[in-house]
Amino acid sequence: xxxxxxxxxxxxxxxxxxxxxxxxxxxxxxxxxxxxxxxxxxxxxxxxxxxxxxxxxxxxxxxxxxxxxxxxxxxxxxxxxxxxxxxxxxxxxxxxxxxxxxxxxxxxxxxxxxxxxxxxxxxxxxxxxxxx
Length: 132
What we know:
Elements: H1 6-11, E1 24-25, E2 35-36, H2 57-78, H3 88-117
Antiparallel strand pairs: 1-2
Helix pairs in contact: 2-3
Keywords: Membrane, Transmembrane, Transmembrane helix
Protein name: DUF983 domain-containing protein
Organism: Pedobacter ginsengiterrae
């Protein structure tokens, strides 16, 4: 099996150390509740580095939400929704629907971005996920 690049590991929500183990159980839009694994199934890396570690992911999720809100608002305007007071509730409805629809993605990728890019000292170690 070919080694995953860092970008592929982020997109597939793989462990930052071995790039083989899944960070989450299930898919983003499953009927079951999303759950972050405690340890990597391959290299046994503990994902929550310290108590409250994933609280920082809220700030990453906030930045993602702001970008999504701006994108949805600008896209609505470009696609023909006039920017007048009468259309205010259309904009609010579209933005809330978009934020609600993308919340499982924000949950997952805010944690993945935190683990892969914002955690110092946590990097790829080739061969760390190999079974002995």
